[in-house]
Amino acid sequence: MESDHPTHPLTGKVIVITGAARGQGAAEARALAQAGAKAIATDVRPEPDGDCRRLDVTSESDWTALAAELRETYGHVHGLVNNAGVIQRDRLGEVRPEDFADVHAVNATGPLLGIQHLAPLMPPGSAIVNVGSSAALTGYYPVAYTASKWALRGVSKIAAMELGPRGIRVNTVHPGYIETEMTAAATPAFREATIGETPLGRSGTVDDIAPLVVFLLSDASSFITGAEIPVDGGLTAHGGVKSISDAVRPGTPDTQTP
């Protein structure tokens, strides 16, 4: 039986999460359910034995069907977590236009479609969380992925402005290097270099992200909208100069007097 105890800040709220079959999305769905929400987990490839509805975020017909189902079943939707995303690691001179477009379809157009179809079901006090990336705050080299996350920043800012008068908040979370299936495909050298640029000196976990998502969907953040919150161990805070700072730290060979 659900209660309105402070540990259940989302009791009675219907919240949709995309990309929720595994990894970060699955952790967010669990956290939302534990906070009392009716978490509608969706994924383009749901786990066979999981409680996850199939949704291709690039398909307008899929969003139309989901919105109709939610309207019929619940009447309202109180939250949306646009978590689904794909990575494509080609560099500027290598990426094909079709791959560039495919990444944008998932990472930028998918959230746009979600907002367009579910915002009409949202009463005042509802909230949307878009999951960006530390790549959206930097010139990270995989051009399709980085450009798509920068595009999502634009969608988020405009949505916060347009939906604010209706009492709907829109915020963006920018994870850094988080241990998931997606990052597991990166090379050891990439992982080592990224952690080396992270002031906290470690990678993140899905449980570093999920509590913030819960907070941003709850009434505790009722005056926060249009915000962009890095959850990256300080990776983007130093503007790329950590390695320089480390190199010239007193006592290193480069700074010792001959």
From TrEMBL:
UniProt KW RNA-binding keyword? no
The superkingdom listed in its UniProt entry is Bacteria
Molecular function (GO) terms for this protein are: oxidoreductase activity, acting on the CH-OH group of donors, NAD or NADP as acceptor
UniProt keyword annotations, A-Z: Oxidoreductase
Q: Is Ligase a UniProt keyword of this protein?
A: no
What Gene3D superfamilies does this protein's entry cite? Answer: NAD(P)-binding Rossmann-like Domain
Record-given protein name:
3-oxoacyl-ACP reductase
